[in-house]
Amino acid sequence: MRFEFKADRSCKVKSFLKEHDISRGLLAKIKYKGGNIWVNGIEQNAIYNLSEGDVVTVNIPNEAAYEKLKAVPFSLDIVYEDDHYLVINKPVGYASIPSAIHDNTIANFVKHYIIEQGYDNKQIHIVTRLDRDTSGLMLFAKHGYAHARLDKQLQTKAIKKRYYALVDGEEDLPQFGEITAPIARDIDSIITRRVHESGKPAKTSFQVVEQYGTVKLVDIELHTGRTHQIRVHFSHLGHPLLGDDLYGGSLDKGIKRQALHCYYLSFVDPFTNQLMTFSSGLTDDFERVILYLKNQ
């Protein structure tokens, strides 16, 4: 895959390309795995001295698939796709990546899709993940350089995700709120998390959209990406998610999985500088439980 840049100053090639998110590791891959760097159509190396106005062309070698990741057929709900990114609508019941207990995952499905489409780059690059029983939008990069170019946005929290959740609690919630509470692993579990001062900083903001008795439909924005962050924060407030029995949520109000759906995703495409925004409607089980609650 080739990318072209125009030098705006005199410097070494490697310094110039670093400004375009081409790391030392990627330069090594270009050097040793079949890539090339040209300056004004002549092949050069990473320490070549550029002049202002030089045209730098980079050929990044293709990525082979990870052999240990099995390709599994599945009908993906593709929301958006271009040469660099893939956005899908994730169904309930599938983990994002394989583990000791999950090998029928979204990563397996995307690998099969990439192979079926005959794409040159076959490695899987997940940019945003979702829990097994959370539905909604997931973002993939279609090659390593595309993933690297989103790293700055990941680090600065510029990739925005919003969720709908149904939470249940006797106490009132303010219409607008912010939860700032560190999240740590539970002492006696490798799965569950808890709010504890020893944890990593975590911030969640929310707005109550509707209320059905003690249940509230909330619109949530994540400002950090801790494991189980939304589930832990609302359980900490005394408002666990419906269906989330791992964190104290009720299973008797019409839904058996955590009532959590990623309905909004946005990022700036680093190749075009265009703001990309995507939305996803609620799943059938989520809409059914809202209808059930309205009729109570």
Automatic annotation (TrEMBL):
<dbReference type="InterPro" id="IPR050188">
    <property type="entry name" value="RluA_PseudoU_synthase"/>
</dbReference>
<protein>
    <recommendedName>
        <fullName>Pseudouridine synthase</fullName>
        <ecNumber>5.4.99.-</ecNumber>
    </recommendedName>
</protein>
<dbReference type="GO" id="GO:0009982">
    <property type="term" value="F:pseudouridine synthase activity"/>
</dbReference>
<dbReference type="GO" id="GO:0000455">
    <property type="term" value="P:enzyme-directed rRNA pseudouridine synthesis"/>
</dbReference>
<dbReference type="GO" id="GO:0140098">
    <property type="term" value="F:catalytic activity, acting on RNA"/>
</dbReference>
<comment type="similarity">
    <text>Belongs to the pseudouridine synthase RluA family.</text>
</comment>
<feature type="domain" description="Pseudouridine synthase RsuA/RluA-like">
    <location>
        <begin position="84"/>
        <end position="236"/>
    </location>
</feature>
<dbReference type="Pfam" id="PF00849">
    <property type="entry name" value="PseudoU_synth_2"/>
</dbReference>
<keyword id="KW-0413">Isomerase</keyword>
<dbReference type="GO" id="GO:0003723">
    <property type="term" value="F:RNA binding"/>
</dbReference>
<comment type="function">
    <text>Responsible for synthesis of pseudouridine from uracil.</text>
</comment>
<dbReference type="InterPro" id="IPR006224">
    <property type="entry name" value="PsdUridine_synth_RluA-like_CS"/>
</dbReference>
<dbReference type="InterPro" id="IPR020103">
    <property type="entry name" value="PsdUridine_synth_cat_dom_sf"/>
</dbReference>
<dbReference type="InterPro" id="IPR006225">
    <property type="entry name" value="PsdUridine_synth_RluC/D"/>
</dbReference>
<feature type="active site">
    <location>
        <position position="131"/>
    </location>
</feature>
<dbReference type="InterPro" id="IPR006145">
    <property type="entry name" value="PsdUridine_synth_RsuA/RluA"/>
</dbReference>
